[in-house]
Amino acid sequence: MRQRWGGCFSGGDVRVGGRPLEEPEPEVFSFAEPLPAWPPGGGFARGRMCIGGGELELAAATSFQKICTLSSTWRGGSSSTTFYRPVGVPEGFCLLGHYCQPNCRPLHGHLLVARAGARPPGAPAQPPPLCAPRDYSLVWEFRAGGVGSGTRGDAGSCYGLCDAYFWVPVPPEGYRALGCLVTTEPQKPPLDEVACVRADLTDECEPHGSLLHLQLARRRPPSSSESCAPAFAVRGVRPVHRGMWGKGVGAGTFCCAADGTAPREQGMACLSNVELDLSAMPTLEQAHAVIRHYGPTLFFHPKEVYLPSSVSWFFKNGAALYKRGGDGAGEEVDGEGSNLPGGGCNDGEYWIDVPGGERGRAVCRGNIDSAELYAHVKPAMGGACTDVAMWVFCPFNGPARLKLGPISLPLGKTGRHVGDWEHFTLRVSNLTGELMGLYYSQHSGGHWVDASALEYTDGNRPVVYSSRNGHASYAYPGVYLQGSAALGIGIRNDAARSRLFVDSSAKYRIVAAEHLGEGAVAEPQWLQFMREWGPTVVYKSRKRMEWMIGRLPLRIRGRAENMLNKMPNELSREEGPTGPKEKNNWEGDERW
């Protein structure tokens, strides 16, 4: 088993003071096993893809040369981020920007480069798709030894191993820049160092994440108009228009600003797959090969009582369909759900429930031997990537537990409901066939973990930990809180390895792949059921928590009350869960 790199720098306000400890340069990430020879056909994993009707050809740069490292101290610890330029770029391709990542994980970059392709036949004459910038604008500079200055005259202290100058390309009229550059000399980069892209081949972008955030020390008292010290932030860039049918393509570059300026205000953008050409997407056979190669192992907690099952097992063992205004008797459902009402919306007319008594309790405990993952294969990042959302079904969601510092208390029936759909998502590059990251869904949110920071089991298959009772997905074992980690107060999510697991590389079923066209994948009828997979449940746990918090010491009671106000509404009432197609990430992007 291979472990992740721990303690990854996640940003935040960092006051730079004192010379930080030097961190070793990260090793270059490599998968435990070589990638397989993918089944032939189509444009998947061929190293190239075209957008704009072939006007722009894209490739992926995955080898890098270090430019410089910036280090900072924060709350007694130290972190560092390294900036890179790609090397080994295919002949004729242009850089769109530089790459950076925190040093807490192995080097694993995926930066798009571009070259002009063939103009579509019959297309009107247009300016070239790529053009050199007309100038560069200095965003911020750091000087080794402790001096950092911004273009507006703010000053502070920062330590790096060498000088660093951050530039944003100034595009010609009708073009957009896609990324920033870093140099170790004050001279502007050569104009042919990077290319700008014609505006009609771009899409709007937005910053996300935090790659480096430095709250710089002042050398003078702030004026009345300056409420805080100047900051310099480096962030990732992603398309605004994402999801299954989104045309935005992220290039893997970064943006930076000293005053919170948005990248689009600096003339930056992302690429756009204008005609949404999905020829680089995998064929059905290739999608199966991707899942067999990268399919994660899903571990359940050793004390888990409410295990997964297949949907077929759930129906065959007593789950029934109920109708509002009916006689109270449920209608039996066959293994494929062929008699479930399909389409429409969640109008409250129908829901699914389990039988009462011991038979119902047996259904709620699930059947892990029958469990399988239900895979939705879909385009991501404008067809430059493939997302494989893998859905797991548990017949029952168990009760929640509250953590109050060192004490854990059961919350009675809170959290208990019939039917629980959870998922995690693989993201694979359509250019290289490499796994780029894994999304872990957690209740109403979640986060991506880069492939270099994942824990793996056999070969190139990552690990997913399912939390006890609630079945949220986590990358590593531990106790996670919905609430305040600082106070140690919140709903517990315990994740640990056990002998209870499902290997999704072997036990899966592709239930949807819309990009392949109608009929390519036979979608089961239960997938079209848009109503609730369990009845609505009303709880009294919020009043109980208010009672408990009212008896806490005064010094933490106020903060605990604020934390309670931020807790999910499910503490009072929970609607029956809907199926995968009713989730906004079925067609939309993951919440990150």
From TrEMBL:
Region feature Disordered, mapped onto this chain: 568-592
Any Pfam family matching the protein: Vps62
Basic and acidic residues bias locations: 571-592
Lineage top rank: taxon: Eukaryota
Residue stretches spanning the membrane: none
PANTHER family documented for this protein: BNAC01G40110D PROTEIN, VACUOLAR PROTEIN SORTING-ASSOCIATED PROTEIN 62
Protein name: Vacuolar protein sorting-associated protein 62
UniProt organism field: Panicum virgatum (Blackwell switchgrass)
